[in-house]
């Protein structure tokens, strides 16, 4: 996420802010003095024509992914064991993030944003694997689900955008915000030291990614 941010910022002056208004991430923008300097001297990049039907199909695919994510998260029965409950939620959560990124890899407009999706997919795949492994290696005594206990889920909104890249950035930023909230909610309840460390690592990645995405949207 570090090597391509400068390219994303310079490119987005044309590709994302031209008629786009993605939703703001909750986190603050980083110091982008170097990026701003480089973007001011970057060559102009022509914006490819967007087929409206392709854009609507892309957004419909985004909608299907985030709606399934919300439904599946809301159906996870919680037992009160933080490590087990969080693992089950994050396996679902990261799988949906992978779907979002792979959709962008296939159908994004500019190479810089397809590369962004590729890098994020690699990160989410590793995070998902960690919690899969935890579930397999930490089979404890059976704990019945707590009656009526579910994690409160907020639906991700598909924004009005003029291209696939802008829609992806907005949805990824909102996804990161919501996943960060999930991690913060569970972090104080975790007793497993290794999982605490992993959750903090993931949380910092999500927050940094959103700072980078915010600077892209403001460029």
TrEMBL record:
<protein>
    <recommendedName>
        <fullName>DUF4142 domain-containing protein</fullName>
    </recommendedName>
</protein>
<feature type="compositionally biased region" description="Polar residues">
    <location>
        <begin position="34"/>
        <end position="43"/>
    </location>
</feature>
<feature type="region of interest" description="Disordered">
    <location>
        <begin position="20"/>
        <end position="48"/>
    </location>
</feature>
């Amino acid at each position: 996420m570090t090597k391509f941010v400068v390219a994303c910022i310079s490119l987005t002056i044309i590709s994302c802010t031209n008629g786009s208004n993605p939703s703001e991430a909750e986190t603050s923008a980083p110091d982008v003095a170097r990026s701003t300097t480089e973007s001011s001297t970057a060559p102009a990049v022509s914006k490819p024509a967007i087929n409206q039907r392709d854009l609507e199909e892309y957004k419909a695919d985004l909608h299907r992914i985030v709606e399934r994510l919300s439904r599946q998260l809301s159906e996870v029965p919680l037992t009160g064991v933080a490590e087990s409950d969080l693992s089950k939620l994050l396996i679902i959560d990261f799988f949906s993030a992978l779907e979002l990124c792979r959709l962008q890899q296939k159908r994004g407009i500019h190479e810089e944003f397809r590369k962004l999706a590729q890098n994020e997919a690699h990160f989410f795949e590793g995070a998902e694997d960690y919690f899969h492994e935890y579930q397999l290696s930490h089979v404890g005594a059976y704990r019945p689900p707590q009656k009526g206990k579910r994690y409160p889920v907020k639906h991700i909104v598909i924004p009005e955008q003029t291209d696939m890249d802008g829609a992806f950035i907005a949805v990824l930023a909102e996804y990161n915000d919501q996943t960060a909230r999930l991690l913060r909610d569970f972090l104080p309840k975790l007793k497993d030291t290794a999982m605490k460390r992993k959750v903090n690592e993931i949380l910092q990645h999500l927050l940094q990614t959103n700072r980078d995405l915010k600077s892209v949207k403001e460029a």
